[in-house]
Amino acid sequence: MFSVVKRNPVAVLLALLLHLALGFFLLFGMEWDDKPQRPRTSAPVVQAKAVEDPAKLAAAKQKQRQAELAAERKKQQAAQKRKQAVERKKRLAQEQKRKAAEKKRKAEAKRKVAAKRKAEAKRKAEAEAQRKAEAKQRRRQRQSARLRPRQSVKLK
Fold first, then answer.
1. Contact indicator for 61, 54 with CB cutoff of 8 Å
2. Domain count, the chain
3. Positions of the region Disordered (predicted)?
4. Is 5:13 a contact under the CB 8 Å cutoff?
5. What's the predicted TM-score (pTM) here?
6. Backbone φ, ψ for residue 64 (5° rounding)
């Protein structure tokens, strides 16, 4: 390729300039012709208004009212569902609280019964120990009475 440039440098230079010019015109879109003129019409412009059918307007209003009512119903249903969910949670919380109180009451009753049984057992054990101590005391007294010589009682 360099051999062609060496043999004919002017031709290569002209070809390069031609390609640059074509690229420039393609890039910037130069138009050589004048813009076409639109023919002017002599008819005046008419300001027109669309005639709307009252039946269509009434139907559209009715449809819009129904859509608004449906949206309002949905909104009320959603509010009702939320209210029911809150009420259900409240009932569940109250039920759990009631169950916890009942469980606590039963545990307290069991504790009191156990304490009462323990106190009764302690009282019985103390009574039994007291009875045994008294029996032992009586036995000792009887034994000591047997071992002592009897004194004679003098009658006057």
1. no
2. 1
3. 56-156
4. no
5. 0.39
6. -65, -40
